[in-house]
Design goal:
By secondary structure, the protein is of the alpha+beta class. Helix content is 52%, strand content 9%. A hairpin with a 4-residue loop joins strand 5 (366-372) and strand 6 (377-383).
Length: 442
């Protein structure tokens, strides 16, 4: 990692000095990520990794979601980051085509527990992780120096996780440089387009990025060295110069359906058409989606597991047209066997619209056309997905989302407790009350 103002930003970041807008954003991001994590505990992937982490990385440093304070910092980061992204309903950043929060927050929380850090210090570390990681992600995608396919969030996210952990460990300038360099060198390649085409539990490599970030900072603290000069040192230097002045954390989007963001503009169009024209599944003759090229790779029509359902375009759009919604029940369990949805999914056509493609990744849009059995055509779009940075999403909107996600797993009172813990985090002497929201419940 190139030398820049990054050392000063990491060393001197203080929660009380952040602008009010950044502190508000923090509350929103924390609530959203914790809700995604708790809901994610219902998935096989999250439970496999949590069970493994408890055995392979035992200890009492940090909380493994759903199991209590029974893991090392790196083990808890691994497990909790997997749960955070298990439903693909966590926050994202358009320019890096991925998810900063699910990498940064689990790593920062685990390290904060291990170091007995205050709530304010934890929050400062989270901001550091977002700001550094999002910038690193943009550079990685502009210069894909590790292969032709761009990398999932765990790749560049590992740099953000390492930055957050470096802040909590209070590393000096030299150690910070090496922590980020170690994370970059050992970051998972995570060729995400392979997983888009052939969905599996590996997904965005997010849990590996959090794991690498924690270990990179711990190794640097002990004198282990990396290679601070990257192939794009000048780009790093220029991007990091705006740290503390231009707050990138405010650029994240939120997701209101548990599936790939690339499918959500079309879902929004389907929900709108169904409601506006009172469409019944039996009256739909054909559906056409015009969108950007990357979304077309979400081609699974008959998913057999939740990962395939999350990385599908026709299946969730069919669910939106049949049920008027796409929630956890629709992309998991019996929802995968819904014959009305499967039949409609088979009939959905997808194509690339050159004008929409030209606006990606800065904008992700889709146009949906539904033709009825009577021959009428209903068209909407091009529409974005709900939750974009400029869409005015409020904390209360995310409280409602948290309740929808959590109540089925942990109950209404737990959702209310989480909201209280998040909004009071800055005043906590330690992060334990917040971490307890991830422990056993129900």
């Amino acid at each position: 990692m190139a030398k820049s103002d990054i050392n000063g930003f990491i060393a001197h970041a203080r929660y009380v000095e952040f602008p009010e807008a950044v502190r508000t954003q923090l509350d929103k991001n924390l609530l959203d990520l914790f809700a995604a994590t708790i809901a994610g505990l219902a998935t096989p992937a999250a439970n496999i990794v949590a069970d493994y982490a408890a055995i392979a990385f035992p200890g009492n440093e940090a909380t493994i979601a759903g199991r209590g304070r029974i893991g090392s910092a790196q083990g808890a980061a691994l497990a909790n980051a997997c749960a955070a992204n298990a439903l693909d309903v966590d926050d994202g950043f358009r320019r890096a085509k991925g998810h900063p929060g699910a990498v940064v927050i689990p790593a920062a929380l685990a390290m904060a527990q291990a170091e007995d850090a205050s709530g304010a210090d934890f929050l400062a570390a989270v901001v550091v992780g977002y700001e550094v990681g999002m910038r690193a992600g943009t550079i990685w995608h502009d210069h894909p120096h590790r292969g032709p396919s761009y990398h999932g969030s765990g790749s560049w996210g590992s740099v953000g996780a390492a930055a957050a952990c470096a802040r909590l460990l209070e590393l000096g300038p030299r150690e910070v440089e090496h922590a980020l360099a170690i994370a970059e060198y050992h970051a998972p390649l995570a060729p995400i387009m392979d997983c888009v085409r052939r969905p599996a539990m590996v997904k965005d490599g997010i849990h590996w990025g959090a794991f690498v970030g924690v270990i990179a900072a711990q190794l640097a603290a002990r004198g282990f060295t990396g290679m601070p000069a990257t192939p794009y040192a000048d780009e790093y230097r220029a991007s990091m110069q705006t740290l503390g002045a231009d707050w990138w954390i405010e650029r994240v989007y939120y997701k209101f359906h548990p599936c790939c963001r690339w499918a959500q503009p079309a879902i929004a169009g389907a929900v709108e058409l169904r409601k506006k024209h009172d469409l019944a599944p039996g009256n739909i003759a054909a559906v056409r989606i015009e969108t950007f090229e990357a979304a077309i790779h979400l081609g699974t029509r008959r998913p057999t597991n939740t990962e395939e359902a999350q990385y599908s375009l026709p299946f969730p759009v069919a669910s939106a047209l049949v049920h008027g919604r796409v929630g956890v029940p629709e992309i998991a369990g019996d929802g995968l066997k819904d014959e009305a949805v499967l039949a409609l999914s088979d009939r959905i056509e997808m194509s690339v619209d050159p004008a929409i493609e030209a606006r990606f990744p800065d904008e992700a849009l889709a146009r949906v056309t539904v033709t009825t059995t009577g021959g009428r055509k209903h068209v909407t779009g091009p529409l974005p997905a709900p939750g974009d940075p400029d869409s005015g999403i409020t904390f209360d909107d995310l409280v409602s989302k948290a309740h929808r996600l959590i109540e089925g797993v942990a109950g209404r009172s737990h959702a209310e407790h989480l909201v209280e813990a998040v909004t009071g985090c800055a005043d906590l002497r330690t992060v334990e009350p917040l971490a307890e929201c991830l422990e056993r419940f129900g």
